[in-house]
Amino acid sequence: MAPLPDAPAGVTPEDETTTLEPKPSSASRTTLSHIVSPQDANLYGTGHGGVVMKLVDDAAAAVAGRHSGGPAVTAAVDELTFLVPARVGDLLHAHAQVNWTGRTSMEIGVRVLAERWNESTPAHHVASAYLTFVAIDPEGRPRPVPPVRPETAEDHRRFREAEIRRTHRLARRRAIQLSRADHEAAEAAG
Ligand SMILES: CC(C)(COP(=O)(O)OP(=O)(O)OC[C@H]1O[C@@H](n2cnc3c(N)ncnc32)[C@H](O)[C@@H]1OP(=O)(O)O)[C@@H](O)C(=O)NCCC(=O)NCCS
């Protein structure tokens, strides 16, 4: 077996913390809304997934910018689940908040609800997503973000679940690197 490669670039030691004042989850929580128009429909006549994805990314970007106090870019979409289709005429509401913070990165959770624009019927949960944003300085380099301070029991649950996702993401990345190193070693050996 090939030697284990160094920790992947971009992984910050777990004990490295910033000296910025913690910010509560509620300080940057936001909702962004969009009405699904006929132009937003896919070939089946329901809301195009890309429209929901853009709404999710826009809502998450607003939260990341607010929390970090400046520009922040999408580094990864860790998960995006479509639960039920949105329909033309639905009002989509993307509720977003910071779930977890690292040194320069943040996990933003987004829940998208759909309600009929002209009916008082219950909203449907159409999608959920978890995105990693990285705060950047004017040169585009990662810059430290304030630690998030979870407030409610739900915030604490989201924080713990974000840590599980991060642990799994890093483990998967490391396993793939190891597999590639093995593959390259085997290729080199002929
Ligand atoms: C995101 C970006 C700034 C990271 O820059 P980088 O020099 O690779 O960053 P580093 O390796 O120093 O890592 C910085 C942080 O990002 C995190 N990170 C980097 N790549 C990541 C990925 N693919 N998934 C999740 N987190 C990631 C690291 O874990 C680290 O987090 P931490 O500081 O909280 O521990 C850079 O890759 C970039 O500019 N990407 C393009 C972004 C973009 O154009 N988005 C679409 C439009 S907004």
Automatic annotation (TrEMBL):
<keyword id="KW-0378">Hydrolase</keyword>
<dbReference type="InterPro" id="IPR029069">
    <property type="entry name" value="HotDog_dom_sf"/>
</dbReference>
<feature type="region of interest" description="Disordered">
    <location>
        <begin position="1"/>
        <end position="32"/>
    </location>
</feature>
<dbReference type="InterPro" id="IPR033120">
    <property type="entry name" value="HOTDOG_ACOT"/>
</dbReference>
<feature type="domain" description="HotDog ACOT-type">
    <location>
        <begin position="26"/>
        <end position="139"/>
    </location>
</feature>
<dbReference type="InterPro" id="IPR006683">
    <property type="entry name" value="Thioestr_dom"/>
</dbReference>
<dbReference type="GO" id="GO:0016787">
    <property type="term" value="F:hydrolase activity"/>
</dbReference>
<dbReference type="Pfam" id="PF03061">
    <property type="entry name" value="4HBT"/>
</dbReference>
<dbReference type="InterPro" id="IPR040170">
    <property type="entry name" value="Cytosol_ACT"/>
</dbReference>
<protein>
    <submittedName>
        <fullName>Acyl-CoA hydrolase</fullName>
    </submittedName>
</protein>
<comment type="similarity">
    <text>Belongs to the acyl coenzyme A hydrolase family.</text>
</comment>
